[in-house]
Design goal:
- The chain has a single domain, classed as Rhodanese-like domain (Oxidized Rhodanese, domain 1, 3-Layer(aba) Sandwich), CATH 3.40.250.10.
- It is about 45% helix and about 10% strand.
- The termini are far apart.
C-alpha cells in the first residue's frame, strides 16, 4: 500500500513539473536576430512608451505589458497567424508577455536578456520622439 501511494505521489509530482515548462522559446541574441529576420515575424516591445522612445529594435510594435490593456492592445496590433518575437529591458517582462500571448493562441519567442543583451552584442537600435508616441495620429 505504501509503495502504491509513493508511486501515485511521484506520478502527480511528475505531471505538475511538466506543466511548469514555458509555452514559448527563449532565444539568445544571435538566434533572436536570425529569427526576426524572417518577414513573417512580428516584433513586439513590451516596455513603456518612454523606454521605447529612448531606444528600440527597428520595426518593433509597442504594447506595455504592465498596462491593464496589454492583451487588448497587443491583439489589436498582431496577426495571430504569424509568429511574435517579444522583448523588454532584461527579458523578465517579455517572458510574462510571451506567456500571456501564448495562452491567447500566439506562437511566441522571447529575447533572453532583453535589449540589454541585444546592445551588449552591438546590435542596432533606433529611437523615436516620445511625443510622437503619445499624440494620437490625425484621422483622415
Amino acid at each position: 500500500m505504501k509503495k502504491n501511494i509513493l508511486t501515485l505521489l511521484a506520478a502527480v509530482l511528475g505531471l505538475n513539473t511538466s506543466c511548469g515548462q514555458p509555452s514559448y522559446d527563449n532565444l539568445d541574441v544571435e538566434a533572436f536576430a536570425n529569427y526576426i529576420s524572417a518577414k513573417e515575424v512580428q516584433l513586439l516591445d513590451v516596455r513603456t512608451a518612454e523606454e521605447y522612445a529612448e531606444e528600440h529594435l527597428d520595426g518593433a510594435l509597442l504594447a506595455d505589458v504592465k498596462s491593464p490593456q496589454f492583451l487588448e492592445k497587443a491583439k489589436a496590433q498582431l496577426d495571430k497567424t504569424r509568429p511574435v518575437a517579444v522583448y523588454c529591458r532584461s527579458g523578465r517582462r517579455s517572458a510574462n508577455a510571451a506567456e500571456q500571448l501564448s495562452a491567447a493562441g500566439y506562437k511566441c519567442v522571447n529575447l533572453k536578456g532583453g535589449i540589454l543583451a541585444w546592445k551588449s552584442k552591438d546590435k542596432p537600435t533606433t529611437t523615436v520622439e516620445v511625443d510622437a508616441l503619445l499624440t494620437p495620429s490625425p484621422t483622415p
